[in-house]
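Chapter summary example.
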Amino acid sequence: MRMFCMQQHSIILTMQSTKQEEYHLAQVNTATLRGSLDDPEMADFVAQIRDVNAVADADPGFIWRLRSEGAEDATSIRAFEDERILITLTVWKSVEALSSYVYRSAHASVMRDRRRWFEKADQPILALWWIPVGHTPTIAEAKERLEHLRSHGSTPYAFSFSKPFSSPEDISSRFVTAGVDYN
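The structure predicted for these 183 residues follows.
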């Protein structure tokens, strides 16, 4: 009997780990430049872009990022009417993976110095949402999620680091208890 329970538990754990690969985290953030990218005041920021992107690219939690056609970054993409607004659109394995990159990697120095290069925003500039594995988010989708967060606050549709929502498979896995799958 005990062996059966252990085998049953093992099966459910396998099901849960498969479910964890059903969703990834999409992330959009925007920043309004204080000057053009060729302005000498922006030189320190521009000089870090390649290295900071390389850290993301090498991160085991990183999946994908938006790039301009034929470029290594997205700095030439203008997704908003205000041409000073940069957009970053990425996909990560989890909130934890993205948070580690943002706050505990070379990216952290950009975060510390961001006021030198970007205007302070009076509304959310970052939105997170869960996407099925294999889906590539579009700029239009990202803008819609960001606008939703601005209008409604954190919801499962679009949320922030400060008020995150679990991925859909995390929610369904809560119903798997004591070797019984209630899904």
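To summarize the output: The domain at 18-178 is CATH 3.30.70.100 (Alpha-Beta Plaits).
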